Amino acid sequence: MQVDGLVESTATWEPVLPWLIILLPLLGFFVNGTLALSAARKSADAVRAGGEFDFFENGLPRTHSLPTWVGPGVVFLAFLLTLVNFIGMLGADLHEPWIRSYWQWISTGELQVGAAIQLDQLSMIMMMIITGVGALIHVFSVGYMRDDPGYPRYFAYLNLFVFFMLVLVMGANYPVMFIGWEGVGLCSYLLIGFWFSDEANASAGKKAFIVNRIGDLGFLLAIFLLYVHFQRVDFAGVFVDTESVFEYGGTVVTIVTLFFLLAATGKSAQIPLHIWLPDAMAGPTPVSALIHAATMVTAGVYLVARSSVLFALAPLSSAVVAGGGGGGGGAPGGGGGG
Hints:
By secondary structure, this protein is mainly alpha-helical. The chain has two domains: 15-172, no CATH class; 173-325, no CATH class. It is 65% helix and 7% strand. It is built from twelve helices and four strands; from the N terminus they run ββααββαααααααααα. It has a two-stranded antiparallel sheet. The chain has a two-stranded antiparallel ribbon with strand order 3-4. Strand 3 and strand 4 (111-119) form a beta hairpin. The chain is globular, with a radius of gyration of 21 Å. The model is unreliable at 1-5 and 329-338 (pLDDT under 50).
């Protein structure tokens, strides 16, 4: 059946609190963000008074400070909840995705987009990587960033990054996925340019932000073309009707997939949009690990994998993917490097 323009699944498996997996890192962002704003105000007041402010000297000891527990804690809890659902999914022998629309997000004319999430084997694997590796990076950051005055701000950004990555891989339609996609780009800018008082670091953050916008244009154009031909943009509805709307090797499906590939090229730092990735080392080392190793550069891979039904009808685009995967692997962080 359809709810809010979305094909609801009839999967018998019922995940445990999937919405909480997304909201936990967002909660961490609000808590740490509030602490960061408070510290910034106190620091500004101290500077105006001719003194200095230290977040830890004027509060709890570092090992007992709220960011130390909240930052890694919310991501670790999200990982445990993801693990419970992953094990449950394996036991249920899931043959179709679990889809749930929570409210109507966009309703204009024929365009109906629900705030919906989708869980299947692909999204669950990505969620395990994001929350698992993300939790380890958060824990490592406690020691690595222990002397940084921007300690609470750092964990606020890191929590927000994980939140948007989860939105990206759990969204049940392209617009929700795009929100996560853009959010990850914003967080990469904030984290790469974390030490923004250094001009080189600030420039590196801006470079990453601008280069990724090139790929984002491709994503938007692909969504627009899908809506023109399907009057819908949810994965289930588009993929079910793909073969009846697009012919094999047709011009439109080729253009759509090439636009998606452009988006993936920017996010996964493939040639020629790889130029931002070496500068990403300007940020704190844990940020580089988060971007290079496990999450952000895999977002482009996820987009192509999620849209595999479309790529199966576009041999030219599939050939470009294969060629880019082989050739781009030599780029820093690209292909095999990611």
